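job 3f2a | input accepted
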Amino acid sequence: MDADGPPLGSIVWTAYGLMSGHRRGDADKMAAVHRSTAYTWLWERLLQVVCVFMFVLLYCLASCATSLYNTGNELGEEDVVTVYRFEPTQFHNTFGPHAAVLRIADGDSVETTTLDAHGYDAGGELVGEAPNPQTGPFYVEGAEPGDAVAVTIEVATPNRDTGWTYAPVASHVVDAEFVPELPVRERMTWALDLVRRTARLAEPAPGLAGLVLPLAPMLGCLGVAPAHGQAIWTATSGPHGGNMDYRGLVAGATVIFPVFVAGALIHLGDGHAVQGDGEIVGTGIETSFDVRFSVRVLKGKEIGWPRGEDADYLFTMGNARPLDQALQHATTEMLRWLAEDYGLSFGAGSTLLGQVVRYEVGNVFDPAYTMVCKVPKAVLGSR
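job 3f2a | predicted structure (383 res):
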């Protein structure tokens, strides 16, 4: 059979038979034979097209399957991500080696809730004790002393429509001679509009009737169990984290803590719907929260103080009193980070910090103060 069409001889013979006066029956038979030959050729060509199509389809399916298989191999069985829903029933007023409420693996996420700073839940029921009752601790499989654990805040938002604050400002944030002018300490209630994402005073003082603040939810407390078996009060902070009251601990931020005990033992709580820098009145707008976080174990990553990052900045956190000591811890930790991960000598890091560093204040109300050293990612390039 000719590769490009029906046999030329068949076509010619058919035409010859019709024109040469052969008997009609013979011509009809001959035409039928050659029609059959043409149909056979068409079917063979159609089958060839179908075979090519099926080959291409099977090749594509095989490629997809291979890609999925390779992706699974790259992730590994240990990286299968689980999202847990944890409803707390007990809370702690220290960061310490408490019994874990849940064991989670590297990459896992947890959805949970926190109480307000006085122990009230989403329904306004008193179920914990002041100050700053913590949800947790959460045991992270594979986290050992000498590692670091990265906690990414995925969701942090109020789950009730009221909050509260105190006034006036702390006596140590004003001049000594001004302290007698400060009014008696009192508590204010705030109405939270979770749809419009705003807060306003329920009974505003004169001059504040029109005050409406946008919600800026953050976690006041976040940390791990400290070293040496210590249990440290939730009103203060240290290398383990704790009550840092930094406005940058919001959804989207990742905070990295040194690991001091097996499992790290992550604690969290003290949600603020809004807070100014320093928490200078001793509170943000205190309320209960819905929280979702995920974890990563950084094996062999030894750090001295909490580190973190958000979309725009790297940051390090120093916790101490006086404030200049907290600043020293934060700055030293940043210089070490720039050297370890970005290859900058301490001299080069100093040159960079001298021109781009930003400092923010965390808590300046409680026993240990918090200073935050920030470097914009834009000046660092790719790691």
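job 3f2a | Residues 99 and 137 are 7 Å apart (CA to CA).
job 3f2a | closed
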